Amino acid sequence: MSPFSHPLPPRAAVLAAAFAVFASGVCLADYRLPLMPQAPIIDGKIDAAEWSVAAGFEGFIKLGTGALETRRARGFVGATGDTIFVAIQTQLPDEGVLLAVIDGDSLKAVHDDSVEIYINPTPDAPDRVDYQFLANSMGKGGYNIHKLGSPAEEEAWRGDWRQAHGLHEGWWHFECAIPVSSMGLVTPGRRSTDGVWSVNLCRNWKPDWGWSSLSGAYPHSGPRFTFTTDPAPAVQVRCDGHPAFPPAKHVMSVRNPSDEPLTVNASLEMIRNNMPELR
Q: Environment class of residue 28 by beta-carbon count within 10 Å: exposed (0-12), middle (13-18) or buried (19+)?
């Protein structure tokens, strides 16, 4: 499909394109997002209206392979002025239940079905930190930091981020609120709209110890986000059906939450990830 331009009317207008593909993945580009008009409710149920002004991703990448994880996963990233919000929605097991044995706060929750967040407030600095949060479906888990260079952050850092989990119609929902001020490398008074943020969302699958994320890696690899008060579109991709097996119907929505019209320049590239590569 060739690139195209389309005028996008103001206030919640949606441009949707449906197309059939064999697999999907995340393009590790920079994402520029408008601020959410209001914070989503962190109650363990991802409400489409509450998350409509956020980046939305369909499909996580297996660790170190570049291949799409066949189990379904969705991720969302958005922000208000003082808080970054993330959500992860993943399919429940075809048989049995989510593994959730660790009943106290500990990074040992990695032995359960679990989700992880990595967020870096200064991804271009020589001395930087990826702040990590890991949790199982009971909300039990822990915090960690991953340093590059010599950043001045305490090893015992804890974010105490607000989180909630729920099981709904065959999906595990996870929502989390990350105050900008909760990370030590954030300068006092910084807002979400100041500078660039790196955010990675991850899902650890049991019992096979499968690893997947937006980027196909874990720390120091997340997509980059800037949040703005200027007019900007919120783009989401959603799959109605299994993204790994044809026919997979994907819908791309482009939402303009501002009072000003936007011109959208868009292109679609489909690549078969089997040899020989087809475009």
A: middle
CA nearest to 87, candidates 2, 27, 171, 3: 171
**DSSP H helices in the chain:** none
CB-count exposure of residue 174 (10 Å: 0-12, 13-18, 19+): buried
Which residue's entry shows tokens 């783009």? 235
Which of 13-22, 44-53, 132-141, 193-202 shows the lowest mean pLDDT across its residues?
Answer: 13-22
The DSSP secondary-structure symbol of 27 reads -
Do 40 and 266 contact (CB within 8 A), yes or no?
A: no
What is this structure's pTM? 0.89
Tell me whether residue 54 is exposed, middle or buried, using C-beta atoms within 10 angstroms of its C-beta: 0 to 12, 13 to 18, 19 or more.
Answer: buried
Continuous segment of H or E residues that includes residue 32 = strand 30-34
Looking up tokens 């959208």 gives 264
Residues 37-66: tens digit of each pLDDT? 999 999 999 999 999 999 999 999 999 888
